[in-house]
């Protein structure tokens, strides 16, 4: 393992995604920060930082994935502990930003929970947020501290380039994902198509029609989050019905809750490519699912933040 020479860089993991966190510190070339997260008998979180972090640049790695509330409280308490231990900066690394889908008032009397989460992180003492593929880019504006958003598209596009697929068309499963689909399409030098759908209620999608030429082509559906997999499997089935030769799917954040794995297994999708922003349980590691690591990207971003160099040039 290469050694990173600056001892003021400290990286800690909590319980959401320790495997990814250990991959990140291995790429940086530093040991994992020593800390423990335990529970009192009534379930309250207890944090203990087991080394000095005074004057250090601290990076806390924690996806706020399921159970989101448990992981959020761990993170908030850890931020407070770092603040009281005189860390110079507290950088919150959120591979997956939970509650990001509640980013606006779609109906009367709805909360904007993504903004509440931003408030909680800032109030606890975070000095920067480093995240990957926010569900809505305007969430960056919910913070009054710097937010660096990394992109998963380069990782996904490199994988598909390696497969050397022919007659590719990149498909957005809805109108909101067109920009994301365009980024992947530009990297693969492929056209795009859009699925026009209506969603009568949360986690229920109804496919309407397809805009673009997909007949006889290899379709790659891209989304940021796959939750119950209703949207993605309906989209795949619709693409095949309209003449697509093969259907691949990919996303950055594999939430994969409820019936997701069963739906993917029984769908027309021949391969689902995801990243490890959210750890996959053993029951989700089926043959159709391929997992790519975001650790090299996040490790490089952490080094650049620590050294005060450009993060955006990672995508040039």
Q: What's the SSE pattern? A: EHEEEHEHEEHEHEEEHEHEEH
Major beta sheet, strand line-up: 10-9-8-11-12-13-14
Q: Tally the helices: what do you get? A: 8
Largest sheet: 7 strands, mixed
Measure the end-to-end span: 27 Å
Question: What share of residues are in beta strands?
Answer: 25-35%
Low-confidence residue ranges:
none
Question: Gyration radius, to the nearest Å?
Answer: 20 Å
Average pLDDT, rounded to a whole number, is 94
Total strands: the figure is 14
Helix content: 25-40%
How does this structure look, described?
The protein is of the alpha/beta class and 316 residues long. Helix content is 29%, strand content 27%. It is built from 8 helices and 14 strands. The protein has helices at residues 18-28, 68-84, 113-124, 153-163, 178-188, 230-241, 260-265, 295-306; strands at 9-13, 35-39, 45-49, 57-61, 89-94, 128-132, 147-150, 168-172, 192-201, 204-211, 218-226, 246-254, 271-275, 289-292. α3 links the parallel β5 (89-94) and β6. α1 packs across α8 (295-306) and α4 (153-163) crosses α5. The longest helix is centred in the first third of the chain and has 17 residues, at 68-84. It is globular.
What's this, in brief?
The chain has 316 residues and is α/β, with parallel strands linked by helices. It is 29% helix and 27% strand.
């Amino acid at each position: 393992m290469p050694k990173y020479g600056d001892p003021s860089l400290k990286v800690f993991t909590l319980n959401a995604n320790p495997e990814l966190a250990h991959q990140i510190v291995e790429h940086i070339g530093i040991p994992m920060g020593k800390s423990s997260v335990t529970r009192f008998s009534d379930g309250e979180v207890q944090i203990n930082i087991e080394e000095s972090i005074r004057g250090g640049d601290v990076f806390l790695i924690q996806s706020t994935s399921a159970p989101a509330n448990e992981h959020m409280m761990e993170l908030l308490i850890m931020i407070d502990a770092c603040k009281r231990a005189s860390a110079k900066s507290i950088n919150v690394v959120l591979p997956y930003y939970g509650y990001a889908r509640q980013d606006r008032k779609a109906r009367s009397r709805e909360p904007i929970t993504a903004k509440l989460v931003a408030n909680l992180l800032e109030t606890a003492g975070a000095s920067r947020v480093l995240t990957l593929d926010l569900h809505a880019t305007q969430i960056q504006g919910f913070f009054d501290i710097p937010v660096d958003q990394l992109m998963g598209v380069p990782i996904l596009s490199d994988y598909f380039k390696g497969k050397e697929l022919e007659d590719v068309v990149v498909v957005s499963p809805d109108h909101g994902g067109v920009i994301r689909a365009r980024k992947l399409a530009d990297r693969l030098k492929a056209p795009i198509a859009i699925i026009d759908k209506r969603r009568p209620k949360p986690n229920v999608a109804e496919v309407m029609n397809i805009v673009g030429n997909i007949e006889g082509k290899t379709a790659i559906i891209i989304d940021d989050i796959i939750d119950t997999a209703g949207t993605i499997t309906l989209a795949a089935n619709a693409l095949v019905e309209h003449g697509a030769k093969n259907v691949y799917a990919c996303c950055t954040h594999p939430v994969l809750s409820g019936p997701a794995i069963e739906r993917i297994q029984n769908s027309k999708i021949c391969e689902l490519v995801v990243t490890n922003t959210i750890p996959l349980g053993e029951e989700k590691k089926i043959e159709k699912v391929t997992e790519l690591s975001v650790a090299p990207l996040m490790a490089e971003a952490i080094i650049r933040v620590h050294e005060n160099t450009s993060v955006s040039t990672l995508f040039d």
